[in-house]
Amino acid sequence: MRLAEPLAAPHGNGPREEPPASGEALRRQIPWHLIAPLAGGIALIVAAQRWGKALQASGVRLQLGAPPLTGSVDPRLPAAALGAVLLAALVIWKAPAIAASARWRTLMVVSFIAAGGWALALALTDGIGGYLAPVASPANYLHNVGRVGALGPFLRGFVANLGTYTTHVRAHPPGMLLLVWLLGKAGAPGPGAVAALQLVGAAAAAPALLVAFRSWAGEDRARAAAPFLVLAPFAVMFGSGDALFMGVAAWSCALLILATAGGGRAQVVLAAAGGLLLGAALMLSYGLVLLVLVPAAVIVARRRALVGVVALACASGVLGVFALAGFWWWDGLMGTRIQYAESIARFRPGGYFLVANLAALLAAVGPAAWVGLTRLRDRRVWLVSGAALAAIALADASGLSKGEVERIWLPFMPWLIAGAAWGLVAERDEVNRGANVRTIRIWLAVQVVWALGLQLLVRSPW
């Protein structure tokens, strides 16, 4: 018996029955480029959370209330969160067009204001008290301002007296404490002035990254990064001094990268300015020495040895001035290592934090960064974002960052966000014509929801 043949479609424009898709075709239709990094990121965070809870249940003192993050799980939905939602909605709606077509200087100013506004709106979800609480913490800088006194004796005795200072002062060079002291001398004492300084410094990182990416990778890459730098989830950590460190370090790197693009007197001036800021950054945080990898990569790629020499000389000059005044940077680092070894870190297992630190990093940069970096194929962008990743890897392997990296690694994070942004939109290659508006808005919305989740589910000490 002969099987009936399928009915042939009539000639002309009539409907045609498509054969069912094969298993291979269906597999190709699955967006693995999205599913894999999202599932991997969530899996790492969940694994770090479960592992941390298990360690705590067995008596290990992690001192993490919401592993892999510091703080405590405290779900809340205050009415003030509506302000952050409305601001985020406005930025999501307007940012793609502004990033694509605004004048360059306008874009830099807008990115600075919007980044600061987003961070402030997140902080104010817990009211003005919640905004100022991290700065007023007994572990922070304000509690030791009265001990500065005369600069000479203070700097000469800083390392010897390190164990008598509060936690954050012991963990850093004296630069931040001196800044807080100077604010008081200038008539702006108290947590409000310090919180404002940190917020302004953090917001300044956004235009700095735009300058750096425009100089090295092109204006289209910089413009693509702008909306994601503004609405970065790590803005929930701007209540720490590391937020200010992020801005200072970002401008140091940006000026050094900008110096490699020119020549003559301008090159030397920019290199000197970047070097001086690098020296200032090193007096704020020891760990920022690793971020030198970012401008160094560009200096080597463009073969601008003069920029490196001038920058190194100027940075060394800053450290030398402090040394003459009584504080030698290397002695401070060694003293801090001793203090760190005697702190809660001695109870924290290194193997766990090798993993948990990376999970905290993923939580701070958000899902768009996970996906964008896995899709990034641009070699120029990878040079700087990859250098930041290398710095993070070194910081993780050092064992000197057992926990709290969601704030400690803030200076590295904008370089990941900016690179990931190009990975998200580069396929269309039409950033300036607005062809990616829908894609940009979707990923910005994902970042906003993630940031609000961090802010409203975990009560962080910063």
Write a brief structural summary.
The chain has helices spanning 23-29, 32-57, 81-101, 104-123, 127-136, 151-156, 167-170, 175-185, 191-203, 205-216, 219-230, 241-259, 264-282, 293-302, 305-325, 329-341, 350-365, 367-375, 379-398, 405-408, 413-425, 437-457, and strands at residues 72-73, 458-459. It is mainly alpha-helical.
Can you describe this structure?
With about 450 residues, the protein is mostly helical. About 65% of the residues lie in helices and about 0% in strands. The protein has 22 helices and two strands. α12 runs antiparallel to α13. The longest helix is centred in the N-terminal third of the chain and has 26 residues, at about 30-55. The model is unreliable at about 1-15 and about 430-435 (pLDDT under 50).
| Overall outline | globular
Q: Level of helix content?
A: 55-70%
Strand coverage percent: under 5%
Measured distance between first and last alpha carbons: 79 Å
Number of strands: 2
Low confidence ranges: 1-15, 429-435
The arrangement of helices and strands along the chain is HHEHHHHHHHHHHHHHHHHHHHHE
Main β-sheet description = 2 strands, antiparallel
Give the averaged pLDDT, no decimals: 91
Structural category: mainly alpha
Going across the major beta sheet, what is the strand order? 1-2
Number of continuous helical runs = 22
Radius of gyration: 24 Å
What distinguishing features does this structure have?
462 residues, mainly alpha, globular
